[in-house]
Write a structure and sequence with these properties.
The complex is a heterodimer of chains A (about 475) and B (about 260). Chain A is mainly β and about 475 residues long. Helices cover about 15% and strands about 35% of the residues of chain A. The chains are: A mainly beta (about 475), B alpha+beta (about 260).
Chain lengths: ~475, ~260
Amino acid sequence: MKKVICFVLASAGALLVLTAQQRPIQIEVSKDGGMPVIAIPDFRGSGDAQKFMAAFNETLYADVNSSGLFKIVSKSFLPLFVPQQPSDFQQPPPPPADNPRGRSTQITQPTNGGGHWMQDWANPPAQARYMASGYTAVQNGVFVLQGWLYDLSKGNPTNGQLIGNRYLGSVDEAGARKVAHEFAADIVGLFGGKSLFGTHIFFSSNRTGHKEIWMMDPDGKNQRQITRFNSISTYPNVSPDGSKIAFTSWRPGQPAIFIFSVDPVRDLRYYNQTASVNQAGSFTPDGKQIVYASSAGNGVCCRIFIANLDGTGFRPISSSSAIEVEPKVNPKTGTDIVFTSGRSGPQQIYRMNMDGADVERLTAGTGEASNPSWNPDGQHIAFAWTQGYATGAFNIFTMSVANRDYVQLTHGDGKNENPSWAPDGAHIVFAKTRGRSSQIWSMLANGTQLQQLTTVGDNERPVWGK
Amino acid sequence: MFSKRKLSTIVLAVSLAMFAAGCKKKVPAPPPPAPPPPATDVPVVRPAAPTVAQFTAEPTSIQRGQSATLRWEVSGNATSVSIDQGIGTVQSTGNRRVNPSDSTTYTLTATGPGGSTTASATVNVAAPPPPPPPPAPATVATLGQRIDTELSDAFFDYDKTDIRSDGRDILTRDAAALKAILNDFPGAAIVIEGHCDERGSAEYNLGLGDRRASAAKEFLQGLGVPADRLKTISYGKERPQCTEGNETCWQKNRRVHFAPGQ
């Protein structure tokens, strides 16, 4: 049985590679600002596969939707008949030939195919340009998705087929979600989007009674606990390759830095220099060092330090007597650091070179600004700012570091903090506190497509890794 | 070789035969032999063995540590009189003070030409009753209790780490109490926790809490509290004692608090 599965997987994998290589299609994303309109009818599964189709359809829709690249047609506008494979499409009958002898015949000519015609999907009320369809089945113990994407403007499935692939997963809900993620990744990829499937969000949750580090998929699924310190463990940051996290824990008594590998979960035994506070480690772009905040040396928290991943070679970078924390090295250049400092009064965001020189304040000095996070492009940051709101009432902003133009993404509705950019540079995950409850949300970097990812316990400090 | 069944048949047959034989009428037993004739020896006059007229212990029960007196009197012809348990040969009449630690039976042996006679006396030794329980310790407060009852939190302004005038008064009283407590608990250290309200980033608040704890420690040190027995831990905004979103609550959280050290 295993051999059969292996064979099926291997041959299907080879097929996938072949089709991927042969794919010549390049989608022109319209320049007029209108988003491509896509129809995604519910897929059905044959036999046992149907049990998992709710999870499948939910995942496919959510992934395509959260890419922010499409306008998805409301399902209520879709035709009733859903072609499940190219051969299900029918050509509309040819237009009636002119009857030279009179006009009384041909009044029974149908105006639509009820879904059997491609035109049914392209015409009102659906008015889609693209359509994803297909079906799933269980074959030899494997959950198989046959997925197609059509350009409806081409008139027939042969000319209009953009994607026609098999996707394989395990016969369970996780397998159904996996193939949906992969199919969605192909669709989004055709339009220049990067799928976040396979990336992870790390965060801190108190659902066990103590703050521990957790991780989850970008859609909030597969939440799992990483630390079991029964202390306070929080402020995670993730290495550029997604394989390690640095976080702060009170487990030793005073707050100290820990570095763990993620898979398998292992304490990499970071050596903390003697200090009342070592905290907020974040990785350099080469993944070989961390920058962090420490009270070492002068005994007051905190200056910005840099050290190797084992804690050796530590040295201070900043020299201010103010509280300076939350250092983040530019992921693109590796040559400058954004951080927050109280050196001019209330906490603001600053930038400096890796040697501590050329310090400049990025935020205007109004309110309090904190939680800087780099866009992977190395040119923008997201951060939390109270500007225009009461002290402590943070909202998420983005800013171009070069010209300091900023955009406000959230507008109240609780406290919005700790933004972290997704690897695609198009999504942001953050923590929203309403009342006494803090939960993790994701959104597009323009503030739309808000999606709550956690519900159990209080969850905070999200950080999005590869 | 017999089969099992055959074997058991044979055994059954043999035992039946034996049983049948057992049922045979018994032959009457022969009459018992005649009893021996009465002794007809001429009695020989032999000297009588000594007599122990008295062998007592007074009292027979003592508490451990007390003593008892053995008294004895042997009459008749005795060549030697001895008592065991380490007493040895004694006069035929006398007394001896003993203080056994456990119940002991003394055996007196009087030996004469006519033989030996023994007598015994027992001294029962009762273990002393258990001493009364030690007096209930005058309720000595634990380190944690002393800290909770004798030390007060000092509070801070928003985003500030310098000690306010009300904080100076509180910490001055705390300093006196701290000296007393540290004196009473010579091995103990006390932790000064720095706390903050929920506003501002967590990392920044960790810095604030660290500075608040350090400022309090420095102030207490200035008043003569031994610095090596004061530790600081910043909790930033991780452990608020009040979780409402208003200034009353925030003020309660901007504080230094004392706790037992490790």
